[in-house]
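Hey,

The postdoc asked me to send both predictions to you directly instead of through the lab channel. I've kept everything plain text so nothing gets mangled by the mail client. Protein one:
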Amino acid sequence: MSFADQAHWDQRYTTINTAPHPARVLIDNQHLLPDSGQVLDLACGLGGNALWLAERGLSVDAWDCSSVALDKLQRSVSQRGLNIATRVVDFDEEPLPEAAFDLIVVSGFLSRKLCPDICRALRQGGLLAYQTYTQEKVDTAPSGPKNPDYLLAPGELLKLFPTLAPCAYREEGDLGDLQQGLRNYAYLLASQPKTVHSL
């Protein structure tokens, strides 16, 4: 998500005023999340994840290319008195800082070339919570982009972060009762391994 996309997203967020619910990868696995530390909500949009995490006492950086989205998020932050620092970022041009975050959250966004940077931006023992759209969709809840460049192939999310240790993974495709479960998405919760010191 770069400044080249900014006009598109600014226009889209002009008509949206309510932050989305936090991603399922956070809700389903909240018992595994840190209770303190520095968080990055990457491509945060209106900040549904950022707000939820800040309400849990975490210090959150919320970055996006859309200044319109971040202005709306900043108003919510001020009203609630939360610890969220918003920042307009061109992810194509600005590298993520190394070993800077205890938790990185990405939802509804896919940039495969950013994946190595995301891994490097995690501290030892840090967690990545990633959830986005899949190519395999069910008719009950069509959602997400149509361009396959922004959709995960079956099982792809597990392969995008090979240096991280998976803690939880979910991708249900079109199996079973399509009225239930996690449809049109895959999610991954994975940790940055801690360095093991030999004696």
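Protein two:
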Amino acid sequence: MPSRVLSVVAALLLCSVAHLCLGDEPRASELERDSSRLAGEGHDTYLSGPRIRIGLVRGDRSAIEQLVDLPVERALVWGPGIFAARLDAFVALGMRDRIELEAPELAQAGTTAEPFALRALGYARRDDELLVRGDELFASLGLGWHRAQTERLLAGV
């Protein structure tokens, strides 16, 4: 499948996330169906980031558990979103071992993934200082929605 089609499919999934956040489940589901129709079969690894985010917003533990085990592909194309979604999923699922495996490398200063990694490590290590640092970085980057998700993620799915 051409990468531009995958980009459209990913965009539809991200629009679905937005509609879920706005409380419009029917439109979110419609966008998901459209994305599935376009993507067809065999592209789960490419689209796991937005699908994880959908699962997190819905609190769909089983979907998230399946998606976090997929390998990360096309990270250079999709950017840090896949890593942010995975780290948030690890927190929501209470997967401290996975956090310790993946988050330290992503906690590089000045990167978009840094606050997600700090939040995850703060959770895994029960370290409030790391949680506060992650929260401050979310604020400084203007990532208010992600910042507001901390309590929800810490409560789990």
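Summary for protein two, as requested: The longest helix spans residues 3-21.

Thanks,
C.
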